[in-house]
Amino acid sequence: MEQQGRRTSAEAVTKAPEWRPEAGCAIAIMSRPPVAGLSKRRLARSVGDGRAAEISQALLHDLLETAGTTGEDVYLALSQALPQPAPEWRPPEGTKLLLQQGRDLGQRLNGVLTGLLENGYSSAIALAGDTPHLPSQFLSEAVRELNRAARHNRPGVVVGPAFDGGFYLLGLTAETVRRHGPSLRAILETSPMGGPLARHHLLEGLAAAGLEVHLLPGWVDVDEERDLRLFERLGGSSLERPRADEGAPLKEAYLHLTDRCARDCPHCYARLGASRRAPELGTREWESVIEQAAELGATTYSFIGGDPFLRTDLISLVRRVARIPKARMRLFFARHLEPAQVDLLADAAEGKLLCLLSLDGPEEINDEIRGEGTYRDGLETLSRMQAAGMQVGVNTVMLAPVLSGLPRLIRDLGRGKIRRLHLILPHERGRLTASPALIPAPNELLAALDAAMEAAAGAGIEIDNLSAWKSRLNGSRDLCGAGCSLLAVDAGGQVHACPITCGDPMFAAGDVREAPLSEIWRSSAGLRLLRESHAADRETCASCPVTGSCGGDCWVQAHYAATAAGLAGGYGAPSPYCDFLQPLFKRLRGQTPGAPFSVSTAPVSLPAPVTLPLGGAGTECMAAASAKPTPFDCI
Known about the structure:
Layout: H1 9-14, E1 25-31, H2 41-47, H3 49-68, E2 73-78, E3 96-99, H4 105-118, E4 123-128, H5 136-151, E5 157-161, E6 167-173, H6 174-189, H7 198-208, E7 213-215, H8 227-234, E8 252-258, H9 283-295, E9 300-305, H10 314-322, E10 328-333, H11 339-349, E11 353-358, H12 363-370, H13 374-387, E12 391-397, H14 400-403, H15 406-415, E13 420-424, H16 442-459, E14 462-463, H17 465-471, E15 486-489, E16 494-496, E17 508-511, H18 517-523, H19 525-531, H20 539-542, H21 547-550, H22 555-564, H23 578-588, H24 619-626
Parallel strand pairs: 1-2, 1-4, 2-3, 5-7, 8-9, 8-15, 9-10, 10-11, 11-12, 12-13, 13-14
Antiparallel strand pairs: 4-6, 5-6, 15-16, 16-17
């Protein structure tokens, strides 16, 4: 309970009648006073009180400027009054000040938002004051969504997720508070603010209250000294203006044609349950995406889903890509096809298509995971595809129950004259979060890889991960090519850096229904954030001897594994497979002579270990734009 006599935020606003607005959106920036000794206390422990205050002032100045571009009323909501005598820092002239009230952040946040709404605004937004260089389009999107809900007199909630597990923005309409005020207060006042579960608690509570949330793209905040590297990079140039490396050509476009699928696989990252999605892109819209990607330089196109064959226009889209000079295609599928369907596909592809069937282990294991009959149906379809002159291969997710059967799967593929296998490490997104027992331990992965390599050598099978891993030894790798040489478009038209994040608004970089693909590719704030992030920013990668080859591995696997474990996610999350990848790359570098699978691989030139820079930007984008593409450089 609040102390007797303490004014609420609503009362604090009411006592300034000259600020009373007409109906509109109010934006409040939540912050401690940006003066030495009061601001950014965690950061101050490593950089000092004075430097922490300077950083806080810079953050607030930038946020006030960005919020001012919306044309809405902007407030600075301080956690306590500025100390007396007056400090050197003063808020910009004309800034409307509020004093937060409450014993903790959740209570103060609720007080500021409800106070503004009770004072006559139709909607209100609270912004975290430690958000660096917030893209103006994110804030404009929040205002637009809330105004739309307010005009129709319905509840509206907008959340801006922070990659550390919190949220940088919370917006509400007055109708939301009128109908759900007690629930909102309970959600905020019981939230573990400041921890990696704050956003999860908020979204779970809002869903339980029956409120639909509009989720903005993810962004970062400044809490610790290591966050300053990214803060400084983001401030190096305007988010509205592309840098030179952002003009690098696009190489690969993943076309996530549909979320629909008849299967019910327990590890599917695309099956997220009921959610609000835009209607699927139509045929002409997908053709436009393909044409725009070609104009940006893309020569590799991957058709994925869901089940791409549930699109009746799949054949025509394949035919459209086949007309692009030097184009090549991949098709990811998991179903049985009749001979007539295979012939139509082969005719449309013109010899440019690699068909990749998803099989998880030998027959009894695969059918337990993917459904009865899927193993034989899949291999029969691959045989038909080969007979029609198409290239084929198999993708296998290295789930725990799959590992022991990999040698048998490989021998089956060899007997069927299928020469390509690609291994994929599990992504803890979607349905897999409910089945953690399916995720193997690193030592199990290493043993399974040894056995798979030995079986592949005897069966004449290429495990194409090996050529991809070897290619990483020839230069400095920094994360992956996602967002730098490849992008993905999901079924509803949202653009993502990586196909695994399709359908996740936290990683949305734009929408092809709202902007040209070229504009998104060159100017997206979400892609800019990824391009400014580096493996060496992670504590686990900065001193690792193989980071230059591994590149920090898959940031998508890292993010979803961290969030599933209740930890901070984002591009700085540690890889869940470090204990598998580090010994793997040490073997490939020759640091472990006589490694089990080394005898079955071709000799490779081993450069000296690479130390990644702690600063700078764009290294992976430039490398990705010039590197020779590998068969499928993704695990």
